[in-house]
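Hi all, posting the design record for the shared folder.

TITLE: backbone redesign
STEP: 1 of 1
STRUCTURE INPUT:
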């Protein structure tokens, strides 16, 4: 299934808007990762463990959004957006959402 952050798909016409498709996940950091990343924070540079955690989290949220769109009978999701929010001290939610559409 195609998805995009733009309002339309190139060379494709939206036939029907089916509604908002969404997918979210909540992830928590682990103590071991916090310790190693805190040390990295002292000397500077990318916090690779956190980057990987966030990337995996985003991929899972997108996958869930596409599954939601598919359950509505969508061919694509347009105008995809992401939101994050902190839940408790060491966990965060990532929400992916967009407009599920049928295309010609």
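Okay, here is what came back for every position:
SEQUENCE:
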């Amino acid at each position: 299934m195609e998805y995009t952050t733009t309002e339309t798909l190139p060379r494709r016409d939206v036939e029907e808007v089916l509604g908002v498709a969404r997918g979210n996940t909540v992830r928590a950091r682990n103590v071991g990762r916090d310790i190693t990343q805190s040390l990295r924070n002292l000397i500077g540079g990318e916090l690779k463990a956190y980057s990987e955690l966030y990337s995996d989290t985003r991929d899972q949220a997108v996958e869930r959004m596409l599954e939601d769109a598919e359950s509505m009978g969508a061919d694509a999701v347009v105008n995809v957006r992401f939101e994050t929010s902190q839940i408790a001290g060491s966990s965060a939610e990532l929400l992916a959402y967009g407009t599920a559409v049928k295309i010609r």
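COMMENT: Helices lie at 31-43, 48-71.
Let me know if anyone wants the other runs.
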